[in-house]
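Quick one from the shared queue. A colleague (R.T.) flagged Glutamine amidotransferase as missing a structural entry in our internal table.

Convert sequence to structure tokens.
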Amino acid sequence: MLSMTPTAHIAIYDTLADWEIGHLLVELRTGRFTGTPWNVVTVAETAEPVTSMGGIRMVPDMLLADLHPASSDLLILAGAEFWDADGGTALVAAAARFLDVGVPVAAICGATAGLARGGLLDHRRHTSAAPEYLEATGYAGAGLYVDERAVVDGDLITAGPDSPVQFARATLRRLGLVSDRTLEAYEGVFHRADASAYPVLVQAH
């Protein structure tokens, strides 16, 4: 159950893929279509500034070592170059702690490879950039790969790099923040450029 002031923690690191999580962060922080603004808190392994793939310099709000699932309502993991170099061990461990106690984890693109290497996709339905991308990790969950833009299995949300809108939609749905009708309108506006969906979206709440 969400707290009175729900909080999303986004892990940040060098080469973080800005575009993959942009839609989700905006909708959580503003609550413009959900009616429920969230706190968005950045978390990193060290206090040093990081630079995203798009060149945005960010200073973390807190350290990963101080992050506890009990104080969070969502952990967000974006793609980055280091995931493909077998990085992110501490982040995967954090994701495991979140999932163990029923706090959702939303992972997109390279972050799904990190979760695969950590065994977190071996028993959960999931998606990513392509089946072959995850198979290269040597994980045991290939039979649970789903060829969809975004997949939710319990507390885990996954998506590929070409599906930032669907990633946002799936996460907002898992969090119970908005109706399916509004979510369909959201994807209509931001993915299909469907002008007829806009009135439905702005009347969401």
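The first helix runs from residue 18 to 30.
The mean pLDDT is 96.
Added to the table.
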